[in-house]
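Structure tokens please, single chain.
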Amino acid sequence: MRYNASFWESLESLLRSGEVVIDRPKGSRHPRYTDAVYPLDYGYVKGTLSLDNSGIDVWRGSGGTDRVTGALCTVDLDKRDSEVKILFDCTDEEKRTVLDFQNHQQMHAILIDRM
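Here you go.
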């Protein structure tokens, strides 16, 4: 479990070392898939780099924990890429909601839940 703790501590460090920019607030529509409405605030950590050459993605919930509560590993067959998305302050219900949102058409995701 030592490595498990280090993983979550590293994500916490990345999150706290940069500003979280919410560029797609809860209730907003996806820019390309206008039928998709974001169920939670979605953005990125400024000053970080993900596999798509932009900031590491973050889903922000309403859990009141003020900590990383999980992560999603995604595969997008349209973009032909894979990413890790941080779940910050998400309740169990919000985690399931985001997982359902990320699993559509050519996008597939799995949840890594922080215990």
